[in-house]
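Reply to dn_fold:

You asked what the input looked like. This is it:
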Amino acid sequence: MENMEYYTQRLQCSEEEKAACLETVAKLYRLRWYLRENGALAAGVLAEGEADPFFRACLMEIGDVFLHPEELERRYMQYLMAGDYRGGAFLNAVLISEGLVLLARYDGETDARDEIFCSKDWGELLGETLRGYFGAGYMEQVMEVIRREEQARENPKEYSSLLPEFDDLLELTPGQRDWLVRHVSSRTLCYAMKLGGSAVSKFLMEGAEDREALERDFAATTNVREMDVEAARRTILIKAEEAKKCM
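and this is what came back:
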């Protein structure tokens, strides 16, 4: 915080306002894992359905400067200052900006990480970052939200594709699916699955001759360009139609 007086004047919140902002903590935690699974480009897709205008604006910036947390922080600070937020609205905006910058520093450019990021997990870092904004009295509630989200990660639910037509791939027969997977590159599959749902990704991976290798490639595929995702999407859908004719 460069201007403590500015923050202090605007962070005065009621207990009800602080409690309402706990949901933002949960959203930040879920967003981190969602972007890890789908890539930074997915932030723009999520922004289209985000009701909070500040959160929506911040999500739109991620695709452009995810690998540059300092620039991301500068842009968020401009949004924060221009909005003249106060009370609960200010706390919520600060949580969003701080959480997203932390996410970029933790999951962005590997060479930029320091020892503190390497030695702590995401939940611990998020809790420490937000402690000063909620105050000591609410810290246990913040950590409880994070613990609850971590437990939910252990039993993940399947999610739908960000590209609706990808869900139609589930209608392929196992033979058609296997033909499709054999006739596209691992890179194409990984790029396409970055905006596909968990059910579609699992379905396609089941058709790979070396599933472990494909899963490693998928995990290593991060921060892909929108043009590459779009090209992969077109290739997969074209090959799916070919598979239906061949099998």
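The CA atoms of residues 176 and 246 lie 8 Å apart.
Hope that clears it up.
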